[in-house]
Design a protein that fits this description.
Blueprint (H helix, E strand, L loop, with lengths): L1 E3 L22 H39 L7 H33 L1 H19 L5 H4 L2 H29 L7 H29 L2 H14 L1 H12 L6 H15 L7 E3 L2 H7 L1 H32 L4 H29 L1 H12 L2 H9 L4 H19 L2 H6 L7 H15 L4 H12 L3 H19 L9 H13 L1
Antiparallel strand pairs: 1-2
Helix pairs in contact: 1-2, 1-3, 1-5, 1-6, 1-7, 1-8, 1-11, 2-3, 2-5, 2-17, 2-18, 3-5, 3-8, 5-6, 5-17, 6-7, 6-12, 11-12, 11-15, 11-17, 11-18, 11-19, 12-13, 12-15, 13-15, 13-19, 14-15, 14-19, 18-19
Pfam families: Sugar_tr
Keywords: Cell membrane, Membrane, Transmembrane, Transmembrane helix, Transport
InterPro entries: MFS_dom (IPR020846), MFS_sugar_transport-like (IPR005828), MFS_trans_sf (IPR036259), Sugar_transporter_CS (IPR005829)
């Protein structure tokens, strides 16, 4: 697919937008922005509810019922985390597919498809037979559903954050676009509540045999609500204008030198620095997050023998606190800039694990909470501003592709492997120090990427599109 890029003053050139990324001042537009944020958050809550549910179940349930028994508990956990990693491997594929069609046909429609696929695959996970019933078919079915779930999730995030970022005022894009990020702790909060209630009301044997399935089945309720909300919003004016431009250009395409491609391959060709920078920004944040909310459960429950209900209760409070903090950090990025906030988070990430593991190793509630809360705080500094800064790296015609590729590909080598690497290091060395060094290395990657980042606070998305047109005319 191609478009013919004409002069900024041509009929298919730049159209000056009066809304979309323009400053929002009237209450009607504000109300529209609230609806967009709600629609974006609805799907992202589903995404993270289900991903955190799976991550927790990998440690507490899947390692015991979907794989053969083993005297070493770490073996089953690593096997379960491997199926967990499959979802991350599928995410770039989903990001590429959804981004291609999302840049062409709109963010809204792709988001509706994504939320249905995520919800359906998660519900079916709750229906799976165990290893003792069907043998190796059980983990095979789990992997298949996890892969399908990962494809849909891969397309979800980019569309959700861009739906908000492209509607947001230039001077407040960091704040508004951070709300979909706040859906991460909110989704995890819901998943933790469900797991906590189940662990309180059921015996360990009941939870292991059938109780865990309830959490997966409940996802259908959240999906129905999220899908309905997403039917009530439209794509941003800046995207609608770009979409019209693409259609007009394609209709009059004469195949001359002004023709350029859009999509993943084009963004990799024209904006490699933006893609690599986005991947670097994502690396340390992604590793840190899964160390805090996934590996910490393994470390506390298996190596420190802390009660599961206590762990979930602590994480519940920590997630609630992070939900409150994310928009504040987004607002901060609008005031002081994207780079200072991101750089502070990456720098603190160098030291978090060295402070956290001694606290986690006490096995006491207050030190554990401090360790997890510090981790989520550092994570928020690197995470809250990502939608705004990534949206400001790419033009509208390939923004979905650039954002999704940079965000999702990194998840393969970062978040998907983090619990596996950490579990293997801890099991082999019987010490948390190698794990802490691994986390510090990941933070260092993000710190270097942040130093190479261009400050984009307050930039107009129309100006990015205009610069992209001029670049293609050369």
């Amino acid at each position: 697919m191609s478009i013919q890029q004409q002069s900024p003053t041509g009929t298919a050139g730049h159209r000056s937008s009066t809304t979309g990324s323009a400053d929002v001042s009237d209450s009607t537009t504000k109300r529209g922005l609230y609806r967009v944020v709600s629609a974006s958050m609805a799907g992202t809550i589903v995404e993270w509810y289900e991903f955190f549910l799976y991550a927790t179940a990998s440690t507490l349930v899947f390692s015991k019922i979907f794989f053969p028994e083993n005297d070493n508990p770490a073996v089953g956990i690593i096997a379960a985390f491997s199926t967990y990693a499959v979802g991350f491997i599928a995410r770039p594929l989903g990001g590429v597919v959804f981004a291609h069609f999302g840049d062409r046909f709109g963010r809204k429609h792709l988001l509706q498809v994504a939320i249905v696929i995520v919800g359906s695959s998660t519900f079916l996970m709750g229906c799976l037979p165990t290893f003792h019933t069907v043998g190796y078919l059980a983990p095979a079915l789990l992997v298949a559903l996890r892969f399908i779930q990962g494809i849909a999730v891969g397309g979800e995030w980019g569309g959700a954050v861009l739906l908000v970022a492209e509607h947001s005022p230039n001077k407040e894009r960091g704040y508004w676009a951070s709300w979909p990020q706040a859906a991460l702790p909110l989704g995890n909060l819901l998943a933790t509540i469900v797991l906590l209630v189940l662990s309180w009301t059921l015996t360990d044997d009941q939870f292991l045999h059938w109780g865990w399935r309830i959490g997966f089945w409940l996802s259908i309720v959240i999906v129905a609500v999220g899908y309905y909300i997403r039917t009530k919003v439209e794509d941003a004016p800046i995207f609608q204008e770009t979409q019209q431009e693409i259609e007009e250009s394609a209709a009059g395409d004469s195949g001359d030198n002004g023709t350029v491609q859009y999509g993943v391959f084009e963004v990799l060709k024209k904006y490699p620095r933006g893609v690599l920078t986005a991947m670097g920004l994502r690396f340390g944040e992604n590793v840190l997050y899964y160390m805090v909310v996934t590996f910490s459960i393994t470390y506390l429950s298996v190596w420190q023998d802390v009660d599961t209900s206590s762990i979930l209760g602590i994480i519940l409070i920590a997630h609630f606190c992070q939900f409150l903090v994310v928009p504040l950090v987004g607002r901060l990025s609008d005031r002081v800039g994207r780079r200072p906030v991101l750089m502070t988070g990456a720098f603190l990430g160098l030291f978090w694990a060295f402070a956290a593991f001694p606290l986690l190793s006490t096995g006491r509630t207050v030190p554990i909470f401090i360790a997890l809360m510090l981790g989520l705080g550092v994570h928020t500094l690197m995470y809250a501003g990502q939608p705004a800064v990534m949206a400001e790296m790419f033009p509208t015609r390939m923004r979905y592709a650039g954002v999704s590729f940079g965000y999702q590909v990194t998840a393969i080598i970062a978040g998907s492997l983090a619990p596996i690497i950490a579990t293997a290091l801890l099991s082999h060395f019987d010490s948390w120090i190698p794990v802490a060094l691994y986390v510090a290395f990941a933070a260092a990657v993000t710190l270097v990427s942040t130093m190479a980042l261009r400050e984009t606070r307050g930039v107009r998305l129309e100006d990015i599109d205009a610069a992209d047109r001029e670049r293609n005319l050369r």
